[in-house]
Amino acid sequence: MRVAAQGTSLANPSRAEPSIQYVPVAMTGQQSLMAFHRHLLDDTVRTETFIRAIEAVVKPGDVVVDLGTGSGILAMACCRAGARRVYAIEANEIIRATKRVVEANGMGDTVVFIHKESSRVTLPEPVDLIVSECLGLMGPGDMMMSVVELARRSLREGGRILPERVELFIAPVESSLHSDYVNSWNRGRPYGFDMSIYQEIASNNVYVAWFDPESFLAPQQRIASLRLLDDDVSKVEKQVGFRVERSGQLHGFCGWFEVELGGGVRLNSSPSDPATIWKQVFLPLEQPVHVEAGTEVRLDFGLVTTGVIPNMPGYFRWETALIPPGAAAPSHVFKQSSLKSIPRAR
Amino acid sequence: MRVAAQGTSLANPSRAEPSIQYVPVAMTGQQSLMAFHRHLLDDTVRTETFIRAIEAVVKPGDVVVDLGTGSGILAMACCRAGARRVYAIEANEIIRATKRVVEANGMGDTVVFIHKESSRVTLPEPVDLIVSECLGLMGPGDMMMSVVELARRSLREGGRILPERVELFIAPVESSLHSDYVNSWNRGRPYGFDMSIYQEIASNNVYVAWFDPESFLAPQQRIASLRLLDDDVSKVEKQVGFRVERSGQLHGFCGWFEVELGGGVRLNSSPSDPATIWKQVFLPLEQPVHVEAGTEVRLDFGLVTTGVIPNMPGYFRWETALIPPGAAAPSHVFKQSSLKSIPRAR
User: By its UniProt entry, which Gene3D superfamilies does this protein fall under (chains A, B) (predicted)?
Assistant: First the structure.
């Protein structure tokens, strides 16, 4: 394991953390502007890969939509690649600064800014291409649904969408660092109090984390492969089985995505690829279980990207059954869901 | 300088970052619950210092308010210290889980939960003590105003407030790591584009960052000392002068607080004290300036903690004049304010 620990239990802040960061929205109201977009722009793998795909896909004279233009970086890349018109849609107030940036780059006549939610936008002409960095934690997310919805309304016949396809991957992992962080609430008494009530909430949450492929207890499986224009990206439902290759502690699952942007350009958030802002996703097991080589890990995985309850765009569901070598029935069954991480009165 | 850099320019995410974190609210809606309160509880300096102050201040039989009880940690500390009644006020839905935690600790009969904004709360009896971890970036913040407002309405004569007093400190600093991060927008062309428009926004923001006292170009000055029960904590206005002790690049100012909680217990977020979640605040200079030893740095500092514009609870203002040794007039004047970091159309 190369990953660094944030602390397995209740641990103090460390000066080894990154030295400087934008302050949260609570103090200056600018989180949505500079903190978030600086975070995105600082990821050169993400941004350069998207620009490379745009350069491969945009044809001179194209009419393009950039959905969620943010700092305008992809809209400007489309202009530079020869787009005749770019409709840059952005609901956030950053659009006012982005407009000035685009003008400073001499692209003010090509880019048309639309300060609205995309669902409320009607474009004046059919478009050749919709571009959007619409990737959620493990690929699909509510933003991706907005892209698909706009494509149905505005894309001309034969028009394209960037990204084109998203694939999801999962592997069972041994990672005591990650597990100890999640499972700290019912160990000991933090500050002398019983905080075990929080454990159910913590176990049913998903986390972003760095993983090393060496933490895998079995090879990864592809959970889904979705073409944005043809398939339903609002949810993923998949049952999959893993055969444990080495004995160890099963602490949960590592999830990530691989996306085909267009023109043969791919972006991958796997532990083996260069680091991106997405890191990987950790789906903790309700409690660590020792598994022998040969154990079958049956995973019933669900990801819903559209809102089912207010202020909660979607949820993860992961139900696990462990069948030891030679056994007929599971030794352990865990049914976990991020819906269970909502605090309840009892 | 011991601090680690997040990257001076547009830099890629690093696997050296903390390995695991709760996912943002956008995905599961639980940011306000577990991510934020885990972050607070993980700061053992903060939490243990508050608990130590509570143990020094709470007298058996006291009626206490815990304003913004969150995970309930301070409310439980008040119970353990002998409080007869604790009114735990919390507007966030975490209160539903916290109630179960408090019951699990056998304190369900002592703690009365109130699921409201404190401004809408009328207590059934006068209280002896109001406890609140109400500290903002540099001490005062909009939460502190809520505490003071509740104290005026609900504290019995002779009643107390915890924290009792907050002091603000500032020092001029040399820190090219911090300055390079802030001043990256008009250097080079990120991804081949002119992004200099963002520089004005970035220069007028404040940042949280780690500092080393060795980065100071002059000794710190105390900007304010405010007793919460007697003084106006809604704003700080102060003009102060520093005399540069060693030549170097002036990159901005480092700010922090020291707070007197009660019973002689103090908490300090200075670069010389143990790390806390607050780190320090970086107020960047609009551009770095070389200063000779003996240069006078005149700072006109303002901090407003209550909202003047929507979604923006307060703002920082820092106006700097640099007067070289022997000169009669300033060589440089910079007038900066976080109000200028709001994106404008032109």
Answer: Hnrnp arginine n-methyltransferase1, Vaccinia Virus protein VP39
